[in-house]
Amino acid sequence: MGLLSGALGGLVAGQVFALVWKKISGEPDTPQALSRNYSTREVLLAAALQGAVFGLIKTAVDRFGMKAFHRAVDAPLPRR
Q1: Would you say residue 79 lies in a domain?
Q2: Among 31, 48, 62, 77, which one is most buried in terms of CB atoms within 10 A?
Q3: What is the pLDDT of residues 16-40, one digit of tens each?
Q4: Which domain holds residue 41?
Q5: In whole angstroms, what is the distance from residue 31 CA to residue 24 CA?
Q6: Chain segment 42-71, per-residue pLDDT in tens
């Protein structure tokens, strides 16, 4: 369960970051660290933003997963 939610969270974080970067920069692609087409400032800003977005989404996925798990495990068993 944790592996699946982690992978899903990573995919969502990547998509959210791409959307946020497009809104901020007006460019269709995110800067790559080794690309000469972007300034160092742009690359570092993109990396910081990507880390923040990834951290936020990973924490949210982990937190909601933990809550769902505890709701399922801690719930009283149904009567027969």
Answers
A1: no
A2: 31
A3: 999 999 998 888 888 889 989 989 9
A4: 2-74
A5: 12
A6: 999 999 999 999 999 988 988 888 888 888
